[in-house]
Design goal:
The protein has helices spanning 14-26, 31-39, 49-58, 62-76, 86-95, 98-103, 105-117, 120-123, 130-147. The protein is mainly alpha-helical. α5 (86-95) runs parallel beside α9 and α7 (105-117) packs antiparallel against α9.
């Protein structure tokens, strides 16, 4: 279990943190190093959904971001809680390695079971087109395959 109250810099070595600080100072006109250094002072619960997705996109704090996304989906008891496109959350989650996803197998199985048992994807037809629903199902399928 990951402590959601720890700041991200507490998960970094001293050298990694100092490198991030130096990059942010050296490349202060570039948004990525500044963003990365900025999130190191936040705990997982303080990160926005966009920050979590960006962590996975940029391959930084991937394990922590995966954990937090799963926790948020699980707490809300729906994969569609997010103000950011739920499709992108599931896409990014499905892109994470099997090794990382398997760590959260129990919760992911419970989430997927909830989605399938309650036909949540079909209920999403108000804001998802048929094509989007199929794509979402594909992401679920990828995740299932990675954790089994």
């Amino acid at each position: 279990m990951i402590n959601r109250k720890k700041t991200l810099k507490e998960f970094l070595t001293k050298e990694e943190y100092e490198g991030a600080a130096q990059n942010a100072a050296k490349f202060s006109e570039m948004s990525l190093p500044v963003w990365y250094f900025g999130i190191t002072d936040k705990c997982l619960g303080e990160l926005s959904d966009f920050d979590l997705i960006r962590c996975i996109r940029q391959n930084v704090f991937t394990d922590l971001a995966t954990f937090e996304i799963i926790e948020r989906i699980d707490e809300q008891n729906t994969p569609f809680y997010s103000d950011i496109d739920s499709m992108e959350l599931m896409e990014k989650l499905s892109s994470v390695s099997s090794e990382i996803l398997s760590t959260y197998k129990y919760k992911l199985n419970r989430i997927i079971e909830n989605i399938e048992k309650n036909d949540l994807i079909d209920l999403a037809d108000i804001w998802m087109s048929d094509e989007q629903q199929e794509t979402y199902k594909d992401y679920i399928h990828v995740i299932k395959n990675k954790i089994h």
